[in-house]
Amino acid sequence: MSNPRRAPLDGVRVLDLSRVLAGPFCTQTLADLGADVIKVERPGTGDDTRAWGPPYLKDAQGNDTSESAYYISTNRNKRSIAVDLATPEGSAIVRELASQCDVLLENFKVGGLKQYGLDYDSLKDEMPRLIYCSLTGFGQTGPFANRPGYDFMIQGMGGLMSITGERDGLPGAGPQKAGVAVTDVFTGLYGVIAILGALRERDHSGLGQYIDLALLDCHVAMLSNQNLNYMTSGQAPQRAGNAHQNVVPYQVFKTADGFMILAVGNDSQFRAFCKVAGQEQWANDERFAKNSVRIINRQVLVPLIEQIMLERKRDDWIAALEAVGVPCGPIQTIDQVFDHPQVKARELWQNIPHPLAGTSPTTANPIRFSATPVQYRRPAPMLGEHTEEILREFGLKKD
């Protein structure tokens, strides 16, 4: 029996003029929520990430296709139209598409679309209901507005690398970027939030608006408690390796046969840990009894724990600690992640039918609706796959 309820964004049309990661991640999430996302790409080359391989998706014969793993990670549930914005015909097509869409998202450099008449100021009077979202490195204002911005450099400029990596004076010390382009991902998610907010406001006012979203702004915002550590103390947080700045013990420890994470979040959990470790006196020691003093005496407590942790195997520690409610866990490789029973139960590996490969793998959207679950309707589109279909649908080409 079909579901009588519509997807949350069913009926919303999004014109996606973005490429690489932040913008496509944003529009993929909107598409997962039911929006019709039309991805506008350059003829011949398309989104830059199509060529960001190997690895590439393989066809039914096991040969590489033109679809890189990077590209397919952020473009499912979309349709692709190949249009050359640099031509009068191409810019006119995109303008007409915009006039029939609810949202336009772009990540061109500041002012980059003005020459084509596709900037917000050129569209807003003709299209008063259009929600127009610009993603740039530094935003539309300020002394850096015209500079390009990329995830890696923003991780450095924005402070994340100053608090990521091993502590100074230890082997391997130095700034370290995150293993995923977290600035792009967070900016994409902030983009989703902003667009949803603008759509909701339009329900009341009937009007669209402009959204100015910057990688640097989003990056600084996501530093969260680390910002407040500085704002309230006047002291800039430093790299702490795998240790937590505000909670002890909350870090990686070596066991008899490997590494694990111990994440003691409160004093009762610390007491439970001490009991499992056979060191109940720690819980009553005035240097360790409360988290506030454990932080002060971190350099005393952590070596004691390090010595104890070496006495048992990782899985033995995890079983004993989980039994008394102490948060802990292994450090897994990504193949181990997808083999984990919880990940399997949550079906985080999905497959979508694909015209070349048979099926295309994708990571499940983590949003779980009880009545309108996310549907994996389309694989990441091939370049220009839906050009003719979209042109006819929007009245731009007759059969």
TrEMBL record:
Keyword Transferase part of the UniProt annotation: yes
Pfam families from the UniProt entry: CoA_transf_3
Repressor as UniProt keyword: no
Keywords noted in UniProt: Transferase
A molecular function (GO) term: transferase activity
PANTHER family found in the cross-reference section: SUCCINATE--HYDROXYMETHYLGLUTARATE COA-TRANSFERASE
UniProt-recorded name of the protein: CoA transferase
